[in-house]
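Hi R.,

Here's the chain you asked about this morning:
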Amino acid sequence: MSINIGVDSIQEHLQAVCIESVAQLYGETFESSKVPVSDTRKEYEGDYTVVVFPFVKVAKKKPEDCAAELGALIKEKSPFVSDFNVVKGFLNLSIDQSFWFSKLKEINEDSDYGQHASTGETMLVEFASPNTNKPLHLGHIRNILLGWSVSKILKAAGNDVKNVQIVNDRGIAICRSMLAWQKFGNGETPESTGMKGDHFVGKYYVKFAQEFKKEYSDWQLSDQAEKTYQEKKKGEISKEDFFKEYKNNYFNDFSALGAEAKEMLIKWEDSDPEVRALWTKMNAWVLAGFEVTYESLKVDFDKLYFESDTYLLGKEIIEKGIEDKIFQQEDKRVLVDLENIGFGNKTIIKSDGTSTYTSQDIGTANLRYKDYGAKGMIYVVGDEQNSHFKSLFEIMRRLGAPYADGLHHLSYGMVDLPTGRMKSREGTVVDADDLIKETIGEARNNAKEHGELEGATEEEKEALYNKVGLGALKYFILKVNPQRRMVFNPAASVDMQGDTGPYIQNAYVRIQSILRKAVAEGVSLTFNYENLLPAEKDLIVLMNAYPSIILKAAKNYDPSEVAAFSYDLAKSYHKFYHDCSILRAETEDAKSFRIDLSKAVAKLLLHSMDLLGIEMMERM
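And here is the predicted structure, written out as tokens:
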């Protein structure tokens, strides 16, 4: 599966001219991958640099001589190269000012600047995918924000993108919440308690864990517990360590609560009317709660798939795989030999004939291909599932799925808070809704401390706090490469200085203020400006790279590439604003040019932050 990476850029132009020049001078044609064109380092004169060492052997000249000869011919051939210089084996090319002026005009006049032509390919992004037994939490926030941003970046790269999720709405964990409400809920509901539906059901997931913990503690004092210890581990480990390890076995072998939960799961699988009715009611509570969180984060989905509908789907495909000798069957159990990827034999159908997550994912992927014809499927799932997806993708390749080469696991690291890690069953998870409120609260406190927003209504203030808070949260999460584990600090995220969402939003607000004043003063955008200052040129150079940055972010499924661009552009604009007068510029031409330049910067700040799911505002 390939993403369209074709783009008309000055780098590609220079690369093409360089290849042509090498062929003319030395009679050999090099592939473009062997002729990289990079930004010239700040300490040297020039805009772009070509490393000439790959050409020295065919040129049969010293690197400096080869670079000088090549630079002269490139300058002759390219209408954009105004000069060059050589530093050892590095050819530094300077681009004529006319190119940068034409680029600024293109950015302002092209309403779709940054948007790439259609690839004709459909890509599917799966994200969120929660369990219906507890609320969304901090880890889900990273998942959701990554999925949403990647889908927007892939669209900007020219792909038709569908957002989906698989809702994990069946299994023993779901039954734990159901059983706890049945035993301890006394008929209360989200409406009667005033609680959000997912919070309400999550309370009973925690309640089950609390009651189970009491039951297990009591059991440890029983004769049965002593007998079990004596039979299993006597003399090998201490009784205390044994009971720490034995909790899951106890749930399956002795627990009264465990037996009830397992019985409920069996009844669910047998479509017991009473259990199914309870399951439908509680799932509806949770899904309604999820939808409120999705709306607050401003994300949506094209389709929801439910595990309760898909968990049996893979069996027919697996049966065909058994016939084709891809899988091995031992009674009801089905295995696949994954020794080639270091995993040995993997069970895909259990010994009792029930499905596994692998068999379910095989069926779900096939269903999605039937639904959308998507040859690219991106799974946004935490890195604890790396082995699962490596196995799944290998199996899909063996099955000959037409989309197998387009499967990708967007693996991401855990998110911690400064206070440490979280545990769902103990009720110490940082709830997604609470975290959103906290970050918006930090934005509110910041604004009040700085005495901002005088004259605004309370409704206008709250709308602004919301945009700043959500922008802070989203940017802080997305600026980190997905594979890295990270710590989210709500207070640091709303800082108006440094690499934060509010800092970038402030650059946009600053420009809007300038543009309003320019309109009020009747400033013309017709100018005859000739000598670019370094701060002005730096902004255009950055904006010139934006289409390529989108493609790089799409290729790597990495929103941090776009976040870094947004920050660099905002930082460069703040520097430009400090170094160059705009409305009080030295000439009318300079004033008009700098307003035109500011418009382009605002346009790309708006576009790039939108790719991160972040809203901008006119005032701040």
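One quick note: The mean pLDDT is 93.

Cheers,
M.
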